[in-house]
Amino acid sequence: MHISMTEAVASKLRALLDKEGGEACVRVRESKIGCGCKSRITLRLSIDERCDDDLETPAHSVPFVINRDLADQYGENFTVAQDEHQAFTVAPA
User: Fold this and answer.
1) Suppose 48 and one of 3, 27, 75, 83 were both cysteines; which one would form an S-S bond, judging by CB atoms 3.0 to 4.6 Å apart?
2) What's the domain range around 14?
3) What CATH number did the domain enclosing 50 receive?
C-alpha cells in the first residue's frame, strides 16, 4: 500500500494519534454520506486499531491500515488531503 500526502497533513494525523496513545493507527474505510437515492459511498479516515486481515504501511511516520477486501476494491494507492473545511479527504491514486 502507498499513501501520498503533504507533511502538513501527516503532522495533523500524528497529533491525532498522539492523543489516542497506544497502538492506534489511521484506517482507510468506506463511509456512506447522505440517505436514500442521494446517498453515496466515499473513502474516509478514522483512528482505529489493527486487525489481523489488514494491510499496513507507514507514510510520513503515520501507520495506515486498510482491510484487504477494501484494498481489492479500490487498490492500494491513495492520496490523503484536507479540504477547505479542514476535513481529511481520501482518493484512490
Assistant:
1) 27
2) 2-92
3) 2.60.300.12
Taking the CA of residue 49 as centre, how many other CA atoms within 13 Å lie in the half-sphere pointing to its CB?
5
Q: Which residues pair with 11 in a beta bridge?
A: none
Q: What is the model's pTM?
A: 0.89
Domain count, the chain: 1
- 50 grid coordinates: 489493527
The 3-class SS string of the chain reads: CEEECCHHHHHHHHHHHHHHCCCCEEEEEEEEECCHHHCEEEEEEEEECCCCCEEEEEECCEEEEEEHHHHHHHCCEEEEEECCCCCEEEEEC
- Those residues whose C-beta lies under 8 Å from the C-beta of residue 73, and which sit 6 or more positions away, are none
